[in-house]
Amino acid sequence: MRINATDLQNAFGKYLALTEKEDIIITKNGRSVAKLTRYNEPDYFLLHEEALKYKTTRKISYEEYRELVESSDQRYELIDGEVYLLASPAFDHQVAVNEIAWHFYNYFKGKPCRSLTAPLDVRLFGYATKFEEDPNVVQPDIVVVCDEEKVNADNRYEGIPSLVVEVLSPSTKGKDMVTKLNLYMKSGVREYWIVDLAEQSITHYAFSPERDIEGLTIFREDETVRSPLFPGLEIHLPDLFGEIRPKSRQD
């Protein structure tokens, strides 16, 4: 099927559903510019120029990304000019997020920092000096923010989280462990926790103020992950993974 870019923006959900049966060729000024295709992995779609993600020979601009977001009820991320459409997370993914969020809430209650869960747009710009130079928008599973003064007049957060947690899904593993790792490090995030339900592990990255990897530790079995940035913030792994169904731990 061939449609123009305006039709896609006006009825994105309709055409997304049609990708279950066929690819959608997107045209602009009568010329084919992109393809909307169903990604094989279950947890998210990728929109790609003549392949799997939605990108042309140039990066997708933040303005184009905003047009897409405003024309749909779906959730998206913009990373390095590529748009990722996020599907609803699995049950056990949310169990893990809620368990970690509970620990974080109890720790930060009454403190100047605050933990928040997705969906929350986080605007990052890597090594650039401002967002407009390298716009990226992500929705981490959990963030810890210590700069609430960066919430703007429209009640949107424009700061840099101090700590980020991502719970892996099979299809997001590469993105979370490589693409987002680099983005978080370059943008000034100080800690990054990667929770792997299948391996029952938490990979902990500590980043330096100079935006390099300062420490890397993988926690397993009956170990306890502790935050060097927030003394006393810790999670005993059996407390977390004991809440996850055995099938999820084996998949």
TrEMBL record:
CDD domains: DUF820-like. InterPro entries: Nuclease_put_TT1808, Restrct_endonuc-II-like, Uma2. Residues 63-236 form the Putative restriction endonuclease domain. It holds the Pfam family Uma2. This is Prevent-host-death protein. It comes from Desulfitobacterium hafniense. The lineage of its organism: Bacteria, Bacillati, Bacillota, Clostridia, Eubacteriales.
